[in-house]
Amino acid sequence: MKIGKWKLAFHLNALYFRILSYFLLLLIPTIIIGFIVYFANIHIFKKQLSDNLSSNVQSSSKVIDIYLRTSEQTGMNFLMNDTVQQYLLPADLLTDVAKEKSSSITRMLSFSRNIINPYIDDMFVYVDNQWIYKSEGLENFRSFFTEFSRFDEYEEAYWENLLKTDFSFRVLKPTIVQKKYTEKSETVIPLVLSQFIRGNRVVMVVNISITKIMDMLIRNRVNDATLFVVTDNDGNVIVADPSLRQPETVRLITSHNGVTEVTLDKNQVMVTSYVSEYGWNYYTVTPVAEYRRQANGILLVTAWLAFLLVIFGIALSFRFSTKLYNPIRNLLDAQDKHERFSGEFIESAFTYILSGHRLEKHEAIMDALGFEVGQFLCCCLKFYFKESFYTEIQDTDRLLIQEKLKKVIGGVLQQQVTAYVLETQSNSYVVMVNLKHEEDRARFDASLQSIIRTFSYDSRYCRLAIGIGRAHPKLGDLAQSYGEAKMALAKTDEEADFQIVDSSLLPIDESFRFTFVHEQKIVNGLRSGDMKLIETEMERIISTNLENGTSNQYMNLLLIELYSIGIKYAAEKGITPLHLIQDEDHQILIGKSPHILDLREHLSLLRKFYSEILNKTMGPDETKSGQLVARIIEYIDVNYSNDLYLERIASEMNLSSKYVSKLFKEITGTNLTDYISIKRIQEAKVLLSTTALKNDEIAEKIGILSRATFFRLFKKYEGVTPQDYRKMLQQEHKNEPSP
Predict the structure, then answer these.
(1) What is the chain's alpha carbon radius of gyration, rounded to the nearest angstrom?
(2) DSSP 3-state percent helix, strand, coil across the chain (nearest 5)
(3) What is the pTM of this model?
(4) Among candidates 482, 340, 465, which has minimal Cα distance to 420?
(5) Most buried in the list 148, 260, 312, 680, measured by CB within 10 Å?
């Protein structure tokens, strides 16, 4: 028996070591591939870093050039001012009038300084060696340069000598200005402008703040470890990090062009250079460890993979050698897990939830994705690509960019909060977010700003609009938050390149604005074959409801109402909706489709539907009659406040009254007189709700001269008197909850 046990143990151990050796053999290709990828990525990361640094220093230098040119232009504008040209004179030539005007000169100087204040330290002007003009007033020439603003590199005599020197513009070397009244010093670059005014040389000095230039460079840098050196075209240092100010260090850095690697204090650094239009040389100094650190992660991953292979090899070898292995069962389990957690299944689950369905069947997958407790919200992101994107970028590159947008959005957001990104339409994305902690909302907002900054460098090619829904306590409320995000997205400004609209900051109206007049105009557009009238009226209806804060739920009801108008008109003509549009589009327009569209896409589908109705129903004669009716309606809309009646309208159209009345009734289904009255009552309702005018005044403004007629018509169409209608509006306003 003992011999049998030893044989069994030896057999299992032999199998164990044999399987283990197979696992360990995988270490060789893993390590080789790891090192190959490591060295390949060092080159890639280096190229990416150098490109980013070059692009960053170019954009920063252009901003600084703008600062300098704006300062120069502002100074020239000041010197060319009529008041300055007439009254800025040496002290011994000042008349009483000129002395009185000195306050005007200081005010204009203050105005000029305010224009360029964000990036300058001081600004002053003088015409002799007695007085200095500043935005705060006049100061003694000698006291100013020897006490209040003493320039280390330029003594009082230098500034006095400028009055005798023929020049128009100079950029002086950087110097420290000692300020006695603040007991502080500031390093500045003096920009000096000079001009003859009435035979006297006037000198204006604008001190550009070195600190503010450095702050701008640091604030905009793409890598926190990057340092800067800026020199003028003579090689004088203008701006430099304190650690790079040594002459030998500056010489080493400025002796290279383009992108190169040098050794500074035994540290390897990457130096990039750029010459701005202003003639300044910009250098960035970044440790090469920054891109090597990224590649070092690959070595770390390789080491961990090797370690895990050893651990898994030991564990699995033991299991394979001692337990019965069932490959068929394991394959089925693996397939089931893949199906449960595949990207397609997850997207289907979120689409199901956003469509307003119950959560029960997807609770497991939501838990697995980390959507558990806290608050839940949606935000919508929409990219609009400009013409230059299609003309300047090749189609293969465009496809690659568009395919990676989802990964970029997810990559930024998922670093800060639990989030999932769903692509709903081309270039349209919905992000579901779980805010588990109080600080998560701030992190989420910061992530959106980071996305904006990421794409702001490409504003030439695209614009980005973001709408944020309200946060809700239940995961099942994501559909409501999604609707709010869609409404916020619809409120974004089409002229803005990058914009975020938060629905929590917008009012919500649990109703929608839609009247008989609105419906009649759309029907008239259908009967007249005027697609432009239909589109204009739909846009006006939607814009009005957006401005009034109509909620997503009621906006959807309004869109269904607009669709119903077309269905009813088509039914009158004997046409069913499915003869005009596909069933999938029909389900979207009646609000029963899982497909997710934003408001503009929904309107586009409605326009397509109405266009198909016109294509199926309009003949040449109907179009001509419809256009005439459209002219009549337009005339009524403009002249309803005047004395308006059938004969006058017919005269304006050069037609008989009988023909106009009959044609209007046939095309619109409404008597001409009734339409005029309805239009007037609708305008009266607007005045009752938005003004404090009396009833007589309102009647006169809408073209009804009799107070009794106004009351009778208002009650006929609205069921209440004007006073009662205004009281109802006031009561509704009182009952509204305070924000």
Answers:
(1) 38
(2) 60, 15, 25
(3) 0.39
(4) 482
(5) 680
